[in-house]
Amino acid sequence: MDGDLGDFLRSRRARIQPEDVGLNAYGGRRRVPGLRREEVAQLAGVSVDYYIRLEQGRGPSVSDAVLDAIARVLQLDETEHTYLRTVARPGPRASAPATTQRVRPGLRLLLDTLGGAPAFILGRRMDVLAWNALGDAVIGYSRMPPAELNIPRQVFLDPVARELYPEWAAVAAETVAHLRLDAGLHPDDKQLAALVGELSMKSEDFRRLWADHQVKAKTYGVKRIDHPVAGELTLPYETLGVPGDPGQSLVVYTPEPGSETAERIALLASWAAAPAG
After folding, report:
1. Contacts of 164 (CB under 8 A, 6+ apart)
2. What is the pLDDT of residues 130-165, one digit of tens each?
3. Cα separation of 261 and 255, whole Å?
4. How far apart are CA 134 and CA 199, in angstroms?
5. Is 250:240 a contact under the CB 8 Å cutoff?
6. pLDDT, tens digit, 9 for 90 and up, residues 164-187
7. Which of 129, 231, 252, 268 is the Cys-Cys partner for 119 at CB 3.0 to 4.6 Å?
8. DSSP structural state of residue 110
């Protein structure tokens, strides 16, 4: 995943028009969309050569002040700004050995105590590590092969996903943006590189979205699900980091009390709790 810094900077300046940052839009056709490298350098207060070397990944160690100035010029949000700092100054390049992600017993117990809300644990690369009964009833994780318990694989490679998510395009874009954020934090993750390679080969939509270099933290939001039994569900969600396990997060769907979705979730809970046979 080398070249992320240059690709990210080029994609961000392509979306900024000269008039957006107080520059005159001169007549004639511009060879590149958005800002030129020279314009970014001028507005950020650095030399053109310095900025070009930075964008090409050949620059020296870059200061917070320069990165902050570039972030201001490119109008980066907080997540994009953090991502810029991460990819501009990556940590040690030693690749950590692959390890099995495990959910500690206390977290599994916590999942079960959230019996009235669909919930699951995500790990690195958006792997689905554990879920409660209601989370399974909504998404169907237990029916997936273990190797496919991964949100990007489900979204892009499972044909059922486009039926499950009525707003599939938005879900797909958010998924890739979050995966891109993970890639910036772990540039030498061989498993992540393999996942990106697999999805790039098998999904044209993934290739297009990955090339767009959007980054976004999925901390909260609303997801619409067209459930085959319960019908349409509108599910706000909250994503909480797991103390002690920085690569894991708890995702909880929180339907509005008294809403039609809450009634349908209650029916699903009864269905999930009913004994088989």
Report:
1. 139, 225, 226, 227
2. 999 999 999 999 989 988 899 999 999 999 999 999
3. 6
4. 28
5. yes
6. 999 999 999 999 999 999 988 888
7. 252
8. H
